[in-house]
Structure formats: structure tokens, C-alpha cells
Specification:
Two copies of one chain form a homodimer. The first copy, chain A, has 203 residues and is mostly helical. Chain A contains ten helices and no strands. At the A-B interface, helix 7, helix 8, helix 9 and helix 10 of A face helix 7, helix 8, helix 9 and helix 10 of B. The structure holds a DNA duplex (30 and 30 nucleotides).
DNA sequence: TAATAATGAGAGTGATTGCTCACTCTCATT
DNA sequence: AATGAGAGTGAGCAATCACTCTCATTATTA
């Protein structure tokens, strides 16, 4: 039956095509016929697998939510928090490696987070399954470091934002200002983590 | 002729209505008849003032770009950078005051930055007239502080991102996770600036 | 007051949209 | 060979869209 991750080959073709088209033209700006063309199937085939156009978007969201690759970015960050040392290059590098995968998904994430605001169930799912888990996962080791007195007692949620937002901001900014800046990604991440750490470490 | 800032009363009514409708439904998700209804004008009237629906969006962008209120947020940040002390409450407070105005504009900014990716001229205008000026305005005093040795020698652009992204991230996050968190906005901004500062100040 | 411009109301247009449905194709089972 | 189930097709439908046109009414200006 050609299934993988609960999706048939045709369904996967359609979803991949939809991601491509939605990313370039936005959800409302895309047409089902474009998606069909990109997927190499008839328009009618789309509606045999997805009840509505919005159903395609929801399936994309489900695919992203069920894909833990995304959450993986928080693991190396947790390492950095626990070691309290950005110099541990190996871990930093793994962040970069992960984030290159994530970076290619930045347009998709932008799409989902933006379009979700028009569809409350989707918004809730994004918040509950992606935003909050990441925040919690990162907050926990921060609180632990605070309890030992190694980190300052700022609000843990704000500390998490301070850590995460610049990394994400850097990736987003890079997408529409390809500031050539003779600096590689690894060095950039290292500096961003450094700035955060030395603002967090007590003394 | 009823002009103010180059816009007649009718044009202003239409633009205000369009901002409201676009913010709620997105650009492609909105219809000109909705905008007309919200503005209390006939649909045909819209097209007497704007050649196309996209023309309305472009006028909104022009209005935002010509409105320096937005850039004002960088002034108090520059103050913080120059003083190197977030405790200077008066200045922090003025950031908050400004940012409350800005915060109400967050949905509009999200709209413009998102929709602009589908319209290259608009994207370029946003980058050249908003993003880059803000970055430059904030980078300059950072570089000055670096030259005196008071700030560490990280890449100035990254330092700017580290400063700006958490503030923006906090505002955006607050919009779809109304984390009641018994913390007022002023305290939040103070802590975010603190975290940044003590990661930037040498020693 | 007369002339001119702006607007409201709303029907109309062609193009496009999301979606349907009658039909075909494939292929395993009978 | 006959059957049935399910995937795929694409012409076409009803609705909607951005946009136009007309014309009576109101507001502005000379």
C-alpha cells in the first residue's frame, strides 16, 4: 500500500508539492491546480486524499509536529546550558549541523506560524506541540543552574527567549538580507551563545 | 481637499479599514468588498483611490515607512547602549511606552514583513527603509563602546541581533501565548536588557 | 447659485477558484 | 473471463473574486 509514516506515495507527493507552492506563494495565494501540477497528479486526485485545501495545510502541520527533528535543536542548547561553556565546540557544531536542517525549514515554519493565526486549532497545536515543549525543555536546565547559584535569577522564561530569539532571528534575517559578512555560521552561533552565557553566568 | 500626510479622508478610511481586515484575514484572504464595508465606503470608491488591491497594501507600507514612530524604538535602546546601564529607569520606561505603541503595531508589521516576501519591491523597501536603518542606528553606538574597550569585540551585527531579537520575540510570543506570568512588561524589558548588557560589558 | 468634483449604491463582467462527479485504469481475487 | 475495489482523471460547476460602469446624490468650490 506504499505507506511511510502513514502517508502513501501519492499523498507524500502532494504534500511535498504543497509545501513548495505554499512557501513561495502563501496559502491563500496558492491554487489547488498549481499544487496538482507541481505534484504531477490530476487536480481531482488531491481531493481524493484531502477533503479540502485547508486539509492539506493541516496535514503539513501534522507532519511537522510528528517530526522530532525540529525539537532536536533544543538538545545541543541544553548541553550548552548545562556546561555553561560555549567553547565546547563539538556541541556547538552539532547545533550548527542541526540548524542547517532547521534553516532549510525556516520558510516552512514561517508559513505555518503565520497561517496558523487564521486557524485557531492549528495555532493551538503549534503552541502546545512545538512552542511550549521547546520552551519547557530549555527552561528546565536553566532553572537547575539557577538553583545552584551558577546562573542569575532572572525569569527563566525571559532567559529562554534571550537564548532562542537571537538564534532564530539570525536565521530569519539571513534569509532576506544575505549579508555576506565574512563570518561563517558556526562562528556566528558561537558568538550569539557567548553573549547570552556571559550575561547569564553569575560573576 | 482634506489632505493629511498626503492622504484624503476617504483614503485614510480605506487604509485604516484595510489594515484591520488584512491583519485579521491576511492579504489574499481579504476581499475588497470586506474592506469597503469596514471603511463604510462603496467598493467602487476603493478603486477610485487605489488602482489595485495590491496598491492598498503598498500604500500601507508607504505610510508605515514614512512614519518615524517606528524607528523611535531604537532611540531609547541607543541610550541604554551608551549608558551601559539598564538601571536608568527613565529610559527603560520610555522604551516600554514606545513599545506599547509598537506592540499594537506588531500584527501590522508581521503582515507587512510576511506579505512582502511575495512582492520583491515591497521587500526591498522594508529592508532598506526599516530593517537596515534600525540595525545601523543600533550598531553605531555599540561599535563606539567597543572602541573604548567597554564592550567586548563580538561582531557588532550579532550584538545588535542579540539585543533586538529577544525584545521583538517577547512581544510576538506574548501575542499568541498570553502567558499571564505575574510580571509586568516594564520588568520584562528590564531583565532582557540586563541579560544582554552583562553579556556585553567587558568584565 | 451654478458648476464641478466626489461619493454611494449596486448591477455587471470576465476570470479564477475550490471542489465534484462520472468515468477509466489497474490489478488481485474469483 | 468476470468481478470488485480503489486510485486516478479531467471536464465542468457553482461560487467568488478583483475590478468596471452607470447614475443619482451629495459635498465643495467659484
Amino acid at each position: 500500500m506504499d505507506k511511510a509514516l502513514g502517508l502513501t506515495k501519492t499523498q507524500k507527493k502532494i504534500i511535498d508539492a504543497a509545501i513548495k507552492v505554499f512557501s513561495v506563494k502563501g496559502f491563500e495565494g496558492s491554487t489547488t491546480s498549481e499544487i496538482a501540477q507541481e505534484a504531477g497528479v490530476a487536480e481531482g486526485t488531491i481531493f481524493r486524499h484531502f477533503s479540502t485545501k485547508k486539509g492539506i495545510l493541516q496535514s503539513i502541520l501534522l507532519q511537522v509536529v510528528d517530526n522530532y527533528q525540529l525539537l532536536d535543536i533544543s538538545d545541543p542548547l541544553v548541553e550548552v546550558i548545562e556546561r555553561g561553556d560555549s567553547q565546547s565546540q563539538s556541541k556547538v557544531s552539532s547545533i550548527i549541523t542541526q540548524s542547517q536542517e532547521v534553516m532549510q525549514q525556516v520558510p516552512l515554519l514561517k508559513l505555518l506560524f503565520y497561517e496558523a493565526q487564521f486557524h485557531p486549532e492549528m495555532q493551538q497545536m503549534l503552541v502546545e506541540r512545538i512552542t511550549k515543549p521547546i520552551l519547557e525543555q530549555i527552561k528546565e536546565p536553566i532553572v537547575k543552574q539557577q538553583s545552584t547559584g551558577y546562573y542569575r535569577n532572572y525569569n527563566a522564561c525571559l532567559m529562554t527567549i534571550s537564548l532562542f530569539a537571537p538564534l532564530l532571528g539570525y536565521l530569519v534575517l539571513k534569509q532576506f538580507i544575505p549579508e555576506q559578512e565574512n563570518m561563517d555560521e558556526e562562528e556566528a552561533f558561537k558568538q550569539l551563545l557567548d553573549i547570552w552565557l556571559y550575561g547569564v553566568i553569575n560573576q
